[in-house]
Amino acid sequence: MINQYEVPAYIEDNIPALKKALHQFPAVFHIYDTVTCLSEYTDKQLREQNFQVADKCLRLAAKLYERGNDVVKGAITRIFLPAVCSIPLADAVSRIRMYSLIPDVLYNLYIQQQLISNGNR
């Protein structure tokens, strides 16, 4: 089981581009800052249509959710998913592309978050 103190190193190992960003704050003690960093990077990749890197980020978030303790799962649910759900999907093609990238373990949570987000708009 991955705990909140292991998450920064786990992210760095899988996405080396985030190493510098994760070291700008004491992320090892702030799981929400760490997950925010991952979600902002994922958002940027999706907006730039860099789907290969975005897919890697989404799969990493799914692994963290699947293997993480309750604190890690909570951070993915409360920080990562709402950030990903806030990305505007301009048309049906974009929506289908996005849905195809969401890993199975996060898919139901993503849909639930979409419903909550759309209900508040």
UniProtKB/TrEMBL annotation:
InterPro entries associated with the record: DUF7674
Q: Where is the DUF7674 domain?
A: 9-114
Q: Which domain of life is it from?
A: Bacteria
**Any Pfam family hit:** DUF7674
Q: What protein am I looking at?
A: DUF7674 domain-containing protein
List the top taxonomic levels of the source.
Answer: Bacteria, Pseudomonadati, Bacteroidota, Chitinophagia, Chitinophagales
